[in-house]
């Protein structure tokens, strides 16, 4: 039992100090009926590092690793190259094994990093401020809707049909319990977003409009007219960014006057990890900061007048406000925020812009190549690194067939919108700096074959 | 007993004050570090990227043209920046971290290695399920062990952290009550010693919260709780072992009474480490409990997350558990999502998150469970409880232990600040401990004890480490009792002295602004 330092001699000596005869005497408060005698049935006994590693490695080999095959999946999680120093640095024990920085004098490393992260996120999203991270994009999105309700004191949110369907599901789930009214629908397989329809639907009961940018089909559109329409009705615009690399190429939602901008930060530093842990980004206009959920790090001075950082505005939070808190969030996603921040520091603005340009150019080339395949039509006109194809056949079985051949072709809209026949032939394809021209050729050839 | 293992001990006060201040502000190994915005440059990058291939832009008129303001550093500068920052942090790897209620145990490095196997780290959540059978098997195996260890019926794996798990559990309770036509039950009873997340969660789920007082011995007042039950009460949220470090002896009685009155029982499982392998919460009649994988099952806290908070459910609540979950059939593992839940899980209350939960934490927790096994996990709770009682009994003559007379504690020892000199409080003891090289205990929580000091050693500390801490805390406490004013300005040897939190809150500076630009704007 390599993780347990006490020896039997230690244990006996300690029982002596405590003044009891056996360890069972320390569990006297547990009613006898609830005490388990002997090891939990059904669990094996302890195992060596080597034995456990063998077991886990065997399980990992049953998965088709993204890096080993032509890979085109996106829809809220993207494969990007993460520099080696990122993972090295986040594994430093002083970061990895620290807690939430409740004792700021011995947590300046985490706190300064969070302050830098907040600034990077705010600048990326184009907002005045940002918090120290949320669980992920989907929960950040829901928290933003709640925040809009508190600010506007209205309970109707309009969700764009281009919002990730899992984000919609999370919001619908929470709304069942909070009583918010959500208006939502499935997207149409076309080049245009639903911004005009959203503008038409805003009324004086609307607390907010939630729009994804780029949206679930990869489409991008100017958010300024939508922001203006929201503000004319005293509603808020919430923009959701699931691919932060995009903001190295396209205007930030904050620049187009979005009030709250949330996002999924997984693309930078974090990796795919089958969906988690990820890192939620959350920024807003300065005037709304006291309605924000989550931890905030702020600058201050120490008793000797030196600059330092602390968690601040905690009167919004559960440990102070209890049932009146802006959110019940406690743990967030600190280590993933660190990974995001290190990756962003390595890139810098110049690197981020170039990375975004590589992604966009690769996606444009792939879209053009794939749309030459008979039976494939490019649906999306304006996009960043993800676009939608309409196939001449149902996309979902094709994705499965290609997976069996070692090609991860993209996300079928049938997977995301089961039962929506109008979307069944849609395939969302993501292209990043990790995608090679050869990968695109392999996918084109395979599509040509299965669509023939 | 020597204070440290080398046998060296100071003969005069240690002070940095005698030396001339350094030009740089550095103190040998402790290096000051500027912000990336002060040392970086928007034209610098630490990543080599190829030139984009030639292609016609499809961005329309949305190209980002204005400066973003993101500084870059070369790789060596980046490594140095974050290495220097890391050295201003205290972590379990460095020393004893007895933060009560947080279970700061050793984070095994095998966990880290396994989570980084490409077959786990580099797979997409929406990959066709036939290509991720190993990942689904990890989730299914971990789910099986969590259900086995807790004696419950099922588990929802997707919640992202403890508080998120609480929300999942309370939403399942509400869904179950509404399905019974009892949506009019609007009250959740919460003991006053509860974590702040409990009332915040209940309020978020649309419930009114009523506090239940504690008895003089630090437990829930069972009589008052039972007397409050009735047709308006949806359920209770109880932490067991509780935040005073005590086992709620009446848990079964409370559960039975709540059920008899038509309510449901949520247990905050933050303190499961004290009983894992020895007590199954399912045997205590609870309906839902979250498990912090980042506490009991050793996944790292990472400076404030990510966590992971799977929720185990009783038979009564299982039908309402959220999507998605993993199911095993003859032809492999399947993901039950909105599409496939259909008739056999029609009661699901919805979805907590995009995708399937904290896979990176699942691989770590499964690695830990398999490493310890049934015998090891039982030893974990025994050693955790032994270590806490050793601290309690070694210090209860120095500090007041408000519930120490009533018998043993579980995994954490609780003291108050009664007996310190006038004007001295828990925070002064905590900051004094920092100078002695320890992370302080949890301060001022639970609220039911004056100036609470909650000490949770966990099972991964040696007797020598505990002895050193005991000597140090005894010394600091004696100074606080004697009114040693130097404690009021502690810590003296940390990278920063006491930080002005009032200033931070009064004029919040949450992002860096270029001083030149900020001045020009004024």
From TrEMBL, chain A:
InterPro entries: GcvPA, GDC-P_N, GDC_P, PyrdxlP-dep_Trfase, PyrdxlP-dep_Trfase_major, PyrdxlP-dep_Trfase_small
Oxidoreductase listed as a keyword: yes
CDD domains named among the record's database cross-references: GDC-P
Location of the Glycine cleavage system P-protein N-terminal domain: 1-445
Pfam family, any one: GDC-P
Keyword Transmembrane helix: no
Catalytic activity: N(6)-[(R)-lipoyl]-L-lysyl-[glycine-cleavage complex H protein] + glycine + H(+) = N(6)-[(R)-S(8)-aminomethyldihydrolipoyl]-L-lysyl-[glycine-cleavage complex H protein] + CO2
EC top class named in words: oxidoreductase
Domain of life: Bacteria
Keyword tags: Oxidoreductase
EC number(s) from the headed UniProt entry: 1.4.4.2
Assembly, per entry: The glycine cleavage system is composed of four proteins: P, T, L and H. In this organism, the P 'protein' is a heterodimer of two subunits.
NCBIfam families: PRK00451.1
PANTHER family referenced in this protein's UniProt entry, alphabetically: GLYCINE CLEAVAGE SYSTEM P-PROTEIN, GLYCINE DEHYDROGENASE (DECARBOXYLATING)
Family (UniProt): Belongs to the GcvP family. N-terminal subunit subfamily.
Function: The glycine cleavage system catalyzes the degradation of glycine. The P protein binds the alpha-amino group of glycine through its pyridoxal phosphate cofactor; CO(2) is released and the remaining methylamine moiety is then transferred to the lipoamide cofactor of the H protein.
Name of the protein: Probable glycine dehydrogenase (decarboxylating) subunit 1
Organism from which the protein derives: Sphingomonas glacialis
Gene that this polypeptide is encoded by: gcvPA
